[in-house]
Design a protein that fits this description.
The protein is an alpha/beta fold. It has two domains: 255 residues, Alpha-Beta Complex (Spore Coat Polysaccharide Biosynthesis Protein SpsA, Chain A); 32 residues, no CATH class. The chain is 34% helix and 24% strand. The chain is built from eleven helices and 13 strands. The strands form three sheets. A nine-stranded mixed beta sheet has the order 5-4-1-6-11-8-12-10-9, sandwiched between helices. Strands 2-3 form a two-stranded antiparallel sheet. Helix 5 packs across helix 9, helix 8 crosses helix 9 and helix 10 crosses helix 11. The longest helix has 14 residues. The N and C termini lie far apart (55 Å). The chain binds 1-O-phosphono-alpha-D-glucopyranose. The site of 1-O-phosphono-alpha-D-glucopyranose has 13 residues, from strand 11 and helix 9.
Amino acid sequence: MTKKVSKVVFPAAGLGTRFLPATKAQPKEMLPLVDKPIIQYGVEEALAAGCDQIIIVTGRGKSAIEDHFDHSYELEKLLEEKGKTDLLTVVRQISDMIHVAYVRQKEALGLGHAVLMARELVGNEPFAVLLADDVIDGPVPCLKQMIKAYEETGSSIIATQAVDGPAISQYGVIDGKTVRGKFGGRLFSVNNLVEKPKYGEHPSNQAIVGRYILTPEIFKALDRTPLGAGGELQLTDGMKMLLKKEKIFGYNFEGVRHDAGDKFGFLRATVEFALKRPDVGKQMREYLKSKNL
Ligand code: G1P
C-alpha cells in the first residue's frame, strides 16, 4: 500500500519577468484566464485529484495570493447587502476551498530550492508539486492521472509531453523507456534527466511539464544536488540524484497543456477557456469568426 498523496506544493516565488509590466506590482499567479487567477486553476486541479492540503511557496510582493484564498470580509458584506448571492457564493467558495499553508522563499534560487523550502510542511510523506504556469485541461485532472500511476508503481512520477523542434531546450527532458502493457503506453521508466539540454543533445522529445509526484527522499537528494542550469538549484537535477536511489517514471498525461507563463500561451489559453464558457463562449466564437483572418 502506498501512502496517500494529500499535499501539493505550489512554487510561486518567481518574479514573472516575462509579463512585465503587468507583474510589476502583482504576482503572475494572479493573472486571470477569463476571470479566474492562474493559480486557482491549479488549486482546483489539486482538489479534484483528492489533495486538500495546499502549500504555497511565496516571496516578496505575493500577498495578493494569500488574500485571494482568505475571507474577504468587506467584499462579502457588500455582496450580501446588495443581494448578489451568486457572486457571494463564488467568493466564499475560494476561501472555503482549501487548507493552505505558506512558506517564504527569501531568494529565487531555483525550483529545487523552492521545493526544499516546503520540507518541514511536507514531512515524511509523498507529495505533489504543481507549477501553476502550466495550466492543463484534461478529460481527467492531470494530477489525478499521475496519482493513479503513483499508486500502481509506488515511485515518483513526472508529467511529460512530446515537444518537437528547438523548443525542447526550454524544458527538463527525460531519457525513458516505455513501460509496455501499462497505462496505454503513457508510462516511461526514466533512465536519466537533463535540464534545458541543447537542441540536438536532448535525450528524447519527452519534456517535463509542471506536475510532479515525489517521494520524501527528494529532500535528501536536493540537499546533495549542486547548482545547475542558470546557476540555480534545479528540481530536475535533484530528481537525477534521486534516481540513484529510487525508480522514477515519466507519465505522458492525457490533456492539453497551456504555458500560461508565456505571452502567446497565455493568450491562447484565454481564448480556449473563453470558448468553453457558457457566459462568454458564444460571443467569443462569433467574434473570432467575424475576424475572417
Ligand atoms: C521548469 C522546470 C523544467 C520544466 C518546466 C515546465 O522550468 O525546471 O524542467 O520542463 O518548468 O514548465 P522553467 O519553466 O521554470 O524554466
